[in-house]
Amino acid sequence: MAVERQLTPTNKLVLALLTVVALVFVGTSGLMMLENMSVLDALYMTIITLSTVGFREVAPLHTSGRIFILGLIVVGVVGITYGAAALGRVIIEGELREIMGRRKMDKKIKKLSGHYVIAGFGRVGRQVAEEYVRHKVPFVVIEQDNTAINYLDTTGYYYVNGEATEDDTLIAAGLGQAKVLVSTLPSEADNVYLTLTARHMNPNLHIIARADHPEGEKKLMRAGANTVVSPHVLGGVRMAMASLRPNVVDFMQMTSLGNDGLGIEEFSVPESCTFGGKTLVESGIKAEYGVTVIGIKKPDQPIKINPGPESVIVPGDILILIGASDNLERLAARMS
């Protein structure tokens, strides 16, 4: 009984199937020896006995054969009943686990606020998700392809199974409370429609959309996208730079992917930050943290690249910094 409790439903099903196979083998062998039957006749008798279908005997049985058949029936009924119960339990528990898991995920998604939504889990969307995981950003994926859904189940990512352009799907993904939408749908028309719908549902949403053609980029901007990215253009530029300035590309990859502990980040300066009202020199960002400010973005102004040491930090500014990843984390903790 102790071993029984330790078996999983799947293991119990396997055990039951092995028991049935063993009964078929024992029954066939026993009838061949006791009744001198051929392999086919003995197998036939064993199968109809275990299945209790009630077909006639292939030949009259002797007393020893009848006793053997009685024992085979008793053991077979128990084994088959056990197997059927194990099979039913596997099916029911699997369905219940799926239903309960889905409900649990839906409840967690409803509690999210300020999260990121990825529409489409193709090659681009999957890469976006991996970056979000690396930066510990909460996100929800919208996808309806079965292969992609199976992969999402294995990763544990929050997801909604549905069409990204449908209002109900967007509501289920918490778009109204989301901070960012990344639209990576393969169809440019769907990206435009999704951008229009998302902008209407959440006017404060930051929308990043994928475009494959210059015309699509213009349409997406008119639809309300904050940023439009063309993977084909970026890929071409990256390849050209790799051939012309390979060291620059290596450096960009190190900072963007966080390789060798080097990273580039942006931090918004809060009202309570002690850096507020100080120059870069006075803030000690470089001296104390070993982090370099390579840009400052003030509200409604373009980014100031390579600001001088006398540049003043004001709450609300966005600092673009580069440095060791652990130093950037220490600085982030200090600023918050």
SSE topology:
Blueprint: H1 2-6, H2 9-35, H3 39-51, H4 63-111, E1 116-119, H5 123-134, E2 139-143, H6 146-155, E3 158-161, H7 167-172, E4 180-183, H8 188-201, E5 206-210, H9 214-223, E6 227-229, H10 231-244, H11 246-257, E7 262-268, H12 280-283, H13 285-289, E8 292-297, E9 304-305, E10 318-324, H14 325-335
Parallel strand pairs: 1-2, 1-4, 2-3, 4-5, 5-6
Antiparallel strand pairs: 7-10, 8-9, 8-10
Helix pairs in contact: 2-3, 2-4, 3-4, 8-9, 10-11
What's a quick, concise take on this entry?
The chain has 336 residues and is α/β, with parallel strands linked by helices. It has 3 domains: 2-105, Helix Hairpins (Orthogonal Bundle); 113-234, NAD(P)-binding Rossmann-like Domain (Rossmann fold); 261-335, Alpha-Beta Plaits (2-Layer Sandwich). It is built from 14 helices and 10 strands.
From the alpha carbons, calculate the radius of gyration and give it in angstroms. Answer: 33 Å
Helix content: 55-70%
Order of helices and strands: HHHHEHEHEHEHEHEHHEHHEEEH
Mean pLDDT: 84
Number of domains: 3
Q: Oligomeric state of the chains? A: single chain
Low-confidence stretches: 1-5
How would you describe this structure to a colleague?
The protein is an alpha/beta fold. It has three domains: 104 residues, Helix Hairpins (Orthogonal Bundle); 122 residues, Rossmann fold (3-Layer(aba) Sandwich); 75 residues, Regulator of K+ conductance, C-terminal domain (Alpha-Beta Plaits, 2-Layer Sandwich), CATH 3.30.70. It is 57% helix and 14% strand. The protein has 14 helices and ten strands. The strands form two sheets. It has a six-stranded parallel sheet with strand order 3-2-1-4-5-6, with helices on both faces. The chain has a four-stranded antiparallel sheet with strand order 7-10-8-9. It starts with a helix and ends with a helix.
